[in-house]
């Protein structure tokens, strides 16, 4: 098995590397693995060049590669019809059990998850409100977000019907700003956990404390 060492690459650099080694991709362990010939041919027919993903799990590159044993189960499951609502519930229970989370839900991806977050916080368990979305007339539809937590995919919240209310600036956010922003139209408070997040943001524990104190 061929192994190479790669530094973290920019998207442009990764694309340039892919031109030199168009038949290899990195697996989760950093090993370069051969792409099956039939898969390469499928992409070649479309005029799509495989790339070396040196950026981790990134939506732009398809997230992550699927393990062979998972693909095998997927191929078998695809031949059987089931009630998808029931499947989603059971899959969520299994995910929660494996991860230790309160609950789990399979969605289309990160952006789809953001849409569902907004919709769930706005409509709750009310089926009438669910059907009305993204029209939020008569509903609390504001999601509060710290300025330094703004990010490119936040429009997914708006796709779910939310209106974003910004507090603070690019350098600081203060607890009193969050307290003052929470009102009768507040559906949720967003908090971004990411390496580039400013440490001067209101910490998650304090955000939760303030939000819960407001009901």
TrEMBL record:
<keyword id="KW-0663">Pyridoxal phosphate</keyword>
<dbReference type="InterPro" id="IPR015421">
    <property type="entry name" value="PyrdxlP-dep_Trfase_major"/>
</dbReference>
<protein>
    <submittedName>
        <fullName>Uncharacterized protein</fullName>
    </submittedName>
</protein>
<dbReference type="InterPro" id="IPR015424">
    <property type="entry name" value="PyrdxlP-dep_Trfase"/>
</dbReference>
<dbReference type="GO" id="GO:0004125">
    <property type="term" value="F:L-seryl-tRNA(Sec) selenium transferase activity"/>
</dbReference>
């Amino acid at each position: 098995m061929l192994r190479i060492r790669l530094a973290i690459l920019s998207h442009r650099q990764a694309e340039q590397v892919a031109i030199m080694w168009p038949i290899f991709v990195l697996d989760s362990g950093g090993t370069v693995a051969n792409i099956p010939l039939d898969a390469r041919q499928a992409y070649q027919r479309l005029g799509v060049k495989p790339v070396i993903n040196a950026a981790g799990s990134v939506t732009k590159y398809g997230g992550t590669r699927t393990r062979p044993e998972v693909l095998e189960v997927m191929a078998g499951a695809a031949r059987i019809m089931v009630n998808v609502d029931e499947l989603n519930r059971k899959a969520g229970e299994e995910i929660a059990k494996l991860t230790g989370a309160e609950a789990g839900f399979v969605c289309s991806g990160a952006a789809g998850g953001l849409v569902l977050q907004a919709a769930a916080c706005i409509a709750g368990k009310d089926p009438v409100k669910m059907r009305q979305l993204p029209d939020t007339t008569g509903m609390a539809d504001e999601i509060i977000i710290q300025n330094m937590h703004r990010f490119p995919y936040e429009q997914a919240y708006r796709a779910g019907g939310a209106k974003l209310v910004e507090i603070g600036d690019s350098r600081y956010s203060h607890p009193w700003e969050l307290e003052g922003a929470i009102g009768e139209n507040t559906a949720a408070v967003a908090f971004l956990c990411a390496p580039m997040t400013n440490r001067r943001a209101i910490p998650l524990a304090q955000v939760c404390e303030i939000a819960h104190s407001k009901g």
